[in-house]
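Continuing the series of single-chain predictions for the mutant panel. This is the parent chain; the variants come on the following pages.
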Amino acid sequence: MLPLFSRRVLCATAAAAMLACSAGAALAATPKDTLVLAFGFDDIITMDPAEAFELSAGEIMGNTYDRLLRLDVNDPSKLVGDVAKSWNVSADGKTYTFELKPGIKFASGNPLTAEEVAYSLQRAVLLDKSPAFILTQFGFSKANVKDKIKATGPTTLTLETDKAYAPTFVFNCLTANVASIVDMKLVQSKEVNGDWGYAWLKTNYAGSGPLKLREWRANEIVALERNDNYYGTKAKLARVIYRHVKESATQRLLLEKGDIDIARNLSPQDIAALSANKDVKLTSTPKGTVYYISLNQKNPNLAKPEVREAMKYLIDYGAIGDTLIKNIGVINQNFLPQGLLGASKDRPYKLDVAKAKALLAKAGLPNGFKVTIDMRTIQPVQGITEAFQQTAKQAGIDIEIIPGDGKQTLTKYRARTHDMYIGQWGADYWDPHSNADTFTRNPDNADDAKAKPLAWRNAWEIPELTKQSDAAVLERDAGKRKKMYEDLQAEFRKTSPFVMLYQQTEVAAYRNNVDGLKLGPTFDSNYMFNASKR
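Parent structure:
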């Protein structure tokens, strides 16, 4: 059982947004040694890095677990060593060697050696949960992983891939949460019936990062505290508390009152209002997350090339950019977000109802047609969908919106039983293949296919683009590889059943006594351990 927080900390960190410390009392100001954030994290299902695959969970992993390498948050095209002191690849491009920093310990006090790193990567492959593909795509399997990933000395680790991939691709994948290093001795002591400690680690902690997990109560609170065994610069604050608050207006109110230090899920309107508050500052960064509308090619009307193109002319990109995503996104008509190798800035489409009508007539649908779109009831997705419904109507397309929560709409989408779907895709690792792998690869379009990328979900059969995507990830010359992704995006813009909408900009508002807050390009690089308070 974890020790209780002090009364003062409990008052400052209660999960219910307006919970008082006693009857009729107001929330206390946050303690000086504690950072309190309001954040919607109802997507978290586990704290095991071998399974965690949600955006909010990624942020917790990034603050609490080490891995071999991390992104440079100031320049995500570069990597920095985390527990790795040096790294290289063999001349044939298949063997990767890592030398670890000496003397690192887990939060438990157990030593972190190459054996623990190998165990952690092997464990992720053997458990085979959702994010395992990030490692298994290099040819690692349950049968061979213990031979392909191994410690060759106390501080030396080797990984042997099945092909000579672009080295940056391999290194970038090792920054992913699934490559987090767990405390082997601690996890093994919690094993039940050979489960690799899976049941225990779902709600517990076995890491070495700058912060350690103290408590997680689903849809309520995540409490982190400083890891005094951390090898690097220690976190400046004693603890970081996440309070589950989804509503933008509630977050704004809590921030203005000083009941929280940071607000994380703000609407454009609340961001604008807070920008005039002298006690509040704003920070933002482009995120590796893109939003899109997709067209299921099983629908005969949506499968017509002219209809796919017409849909791209029925979005009022300008109005969306100026209102619905103001301050929280930028229009992007490509599958790669800005910041990734080869990302394109081309934006050839704009609202043009006349052009869309001409394309529909060419497709044999001069009077339009009826179609449905599945939509998660969350902003700005709902506002964008409703605006699209109105502009499409001008071209004779009658769109019925089918609303639902995230689980409902996603389940239907994954079964590819939708007509149209509006959603988002966040890069799993900072490499262009993370997005090409899902938008321009579909190795098997059968209903029972093993791999089910976004192209598969929309029944888009693309053997040539799949070949080009496979070739790009093997290209070791960065300049040539960049050109290959530019070419992929050009073809994708013209022919794909995806209407790309925008790239997310994440914004945080914070009290002006908070220093060192910087959001990273991915959720797992939002480092709260760097923050301090005056």
